[in-house]
Amino acid sequence: MTKLGIHTALEKRLVVGENITQAYQFAATGNADLGFVALSQIYKDGQFAAGSHWMVPANLYSPIKQDAVLLSRGKGNPAADALLNYLKSDAAKKVIRAYGYEF
Description:
Blueprint: H1 7-10, H2 20-28, H3 39-42, E1 43-44, E2 47-48, H4 78-87, H5 90-98
């Protein structure tokens, strides 16, 4: 909103959720007129959920890089190793892409 020059004008009307799920709930229940929500909350298999949406252009924000790490106490844990291997798989990438995300 700052890069669009509208943050100051709207600042007094903004409600900030404690997390992305709460922000989605505010918008989905009508307790907020609109909201910035996670793409995965409104997009699946190439389609947006009912309602309107606006994809924020990439030049207006810094991307959030998300990674997975194996903690030292999980080293040698077969379940932890299996999860990391799955997250690197084509099957996991297909699920991630189904919710609108890229690598």
